[in-house]
Amino acid sequence: MSGTKNSGHGSGADDPSEEGGTSVLRQPKAVWATAGASVVAFMGIGLVDPILPSIARGLHATNSQVSLLFTSYFLITAAAMLVTGFVSSRIGGRRTLLAGLALVVVFAALSGMSGSVGELVGFRAGWGLGNALFVSTALAVIVGAAAGGSAAAILLYESALGLGMACGPLVGAVLGDMKWRYPFFGTAALMAIGFLAITAFLEEQPRPARPATDPHRAASPHPGRISLLDPVKALGHGGLASVAASAFFYNYAFFTVLAFTPFVLDMSPYTSGAVFFAWGVLLAVFSVLVAPRLQHRLGSLKVLGGSLLLLAADLLVLGYGDHTTAVVCTVLSGAFIGLNNTVFTELALGVSDAPRPVASAGYNFVRWFAAAAAPFLAPKIEEWTDSHLPFVVAAAAAVTGAGIVAVRRRALTTGAEVPQPRPAREDGVAAFAD
To answer: CB of 376 within 8 A of CB of 68?
Structure first.
């Protein structure tokens, strides 16, 4: 691991809200425009959660058909991980952001006009491509434009992520209670505002070059460019492959909660939105505030293994408990998911010597396929058996993820026991799209 990956333990890193004497809130308009659009982009992930039953009724669709809204979205997101770095390293961050925003505006609006579940699933796929282009580039743009150093910039970005994940279900509930189509139109309108703000306030950022330690640099006539196969080649590193494999099983458990639980809770949009708002708040708090402290106290691998096992136990209780217990366990799962998201991201970016954008793209290329599989398989398992077994399968997936961490501990040791400081995440790939 190069020294640059382990830098940043000074006072500025310890207090990202006051780095270099600049408050985290004193930022250029370009940073606020990008951060605001990031909030809306992450809202789109959980936006449909509280209205899944309403969509099913409105389009006369089954639970498994409606769950394909997540499957198509994340299947395209996974494939897009091989494309986003390729695109942004050629056309620049600003143009990549605008292209992603434009796609989201178009496909979110089309989603609201869908006449069948098949159309809606297809439009969500286009939405996933736009979101992948945007969120995979937004962090690099914020870091490049922010005042006060990279730690302050990343704190802003992760706060936007948490706020978006928390507010998405709430906005979906408020608008969806009137009509299930309105959340899609609302997202399109907000992203259009973000498009205009970024167009007005954000200038093009310098394109990052490959580090001198990159073995591919000498052979490339364009050292700053990322090829389509670079993320796949990066998975040849044993540590990165282990992180990706563990995250694959974790993501299956995560998106069983996000995409299947609304059907089990069977609440009104407002009530379901409130449950997932509380879930999102816990996710944000544990991701931004709790995870770093636990990592420094216990080490990344202990935190990750323990959190995966606790998530598995939570899922079993959720599946077999009464309705009140299911609500409590759904909210509580946000804490474990927040811990896992942060630790997995830092492991993926620090465990290998591949450039961070390349390592992160390869890691996400693997794990987002599980996010696509869980929303489809969980309702199918319920149809074949009962409502309990999908959570048993999800719990088994979380345990499998913990097992990979334990078995591959040696391969994960590099960069794992001493957590990477937040300034190291200047690769432009987000904690959710990273």
So the answer is: yes
Calpha distance 218→23 (Å, rounded): 40
SS3 18: strand
Which one, of 432, 431, 416, lies nearest residue 352 by Cα? 416
Task: Set out the domains of the chain in order of their start, with CATH numbers.
Answer: 28-208+227-424 (1.20.1250.20)
- Six-digit token string for 220: 């490339």
Q: Extract the tokens encoding 198.
A: 């970024």
Tokens of 225: 């460019």
Angle, helices 29-46 vs 150-176, to 10°: value is: 40
Q: What is the pTM of this model?
A: 0.78
Is the pLDDT at 193 greater than 90? The verdict is no
Which are the contacts of 72, defined by CB distance < 8 A and separation ≥ 6? Answer: 121, 122, 124, 125, 128, 372
Digit-coded pLDDT (tens) for 329-355: 999 999 999 899 888 877 887 788 877
